[in-house]
Amino acid sequence: xxxxxxxxxxxxxxxxxxxxxxxxxxxxxxxxxxxxxxxxxxxxxxxxxxxxxxxxxxxxxxxxxxxxxxxxxxxxxxxxxxxxxxxxxxxxxxxxxxxxxxxxxxxxxxxxxxxxxxxxxxxxxxxxxxxxxxxxxxxxxxxxxxxxxxxxxxxxxxxxxxxxxxxxxxxxxxxxxxxxxxxxxxxxxxxxxxxxxxxxxxxxxxxxxxxxxxxxxxxxxxxxxxxxxxxxxxxxxxxxxxxxxxxxxxxxxxxxxxxxxxxx
Amino acid sequence: xxxxxxxxxxxxxxxxxxxxxxxxxxxxxxxxxxxxxxxxxxxxxxxxxxxxxxxxxxxxxxxxxxxxxxxxxxxxxxxxxxxxxxxxxxxxxxxxxxxxxxxxxxxxxxxxxxxxxxxxxxxxxxxxxxxxxxxxxxxxxxxxxxxxxxxxxxxxxxxxxxxxxxxxxxxxxxxxxxxxxxxxxxxxxxxxxxxxxxx
Lengths: 264, 199
Hints:
A: mainly alpha; 2 domains; two-stranded antiparallel ribbon; 2 strands; B: 8 helices; globular
């Protein structure tokens, strides 16, 4: 069945780590630079994430994710470089627009932060199977019913989006315009979305009956069909991450007290 | 739309019907966003499912649908959108409560509900925009206003968000109310009966 998950099994180092460990990596990758301060830790962790992705042969799979945020980042750089208020140092001019060093530097900080978060997230998202994420959530006490909701999403959404092209064609063949002025396009929205909504609600009814007759509401303890076993590296990696986090917190406290400082 | 109901809006049990409503609502959010970008509309229209599920099954299901929508976005397209799950959850709660207390029946009530949902979205999203994007939203009209106000500060960022969010939520709630009215009664009763069960 088609799934929107970006996960791909490569039997790599990252695939062998448990979902919790990879999620902890995301937390450390975001928290550690924030605690320590400065751009060097951020850059170092971002490079580490890229190396991990490349090592697991999934770096190219991060391209679509980079593209989505990259566009917003481009607007951030433009908005900050040319329009940031306050005193400024001129970098260059394009017509009446002045590029300002202060705004540009500020936007670079945002770009670095966002890229660090994205690559860290990719380590988690691209190397973790959704059903394994669900398994570890259920083990941690989340209801298996909610676990079902989570996993089913990866299949229901592609089913629904596939439906959209059929509906668009059907409505066009009935003479509906999907191009033209804003008014025309706004009017097209309702005839397009309402069949999707109606059919998805009908499916909902059928799906809930199908689940109930299969004992979805049973209070018996649920077991896992395909149990995830983490590799031997999982434990040491998790300990190292926790140590790094503790180190970051200690550094933060010392920095607040004024004992140490980071060269900016 | 439904008049004021009995009991507490928070006491809803997550029965099977409500649980399968959540994936459907998230799918509708997805498809709404897809059609909006296909038709090149200047709005997001990515919370119709959240609002519909909130109207049908209350604020808890609405909030869960909204939050999970962004978690799924985060896991499949845009990691940073995960934190905006808080915004969608806020919208779900606001709309769920407005519908629960019967404010979604007539146009003025729907307009108020849209304004409330929009303001909730602005209050939650603006600090997130400041933290992650320096205050921008990524929407052309909002960012133009943000740039005109000097590209910094909470106020400029809030204005950026208001320009995008308020019209979006008002339109979304009118669409939601329109669709809700034509939904089969047998479907709605699945969520609003006192002790609903398919047994």
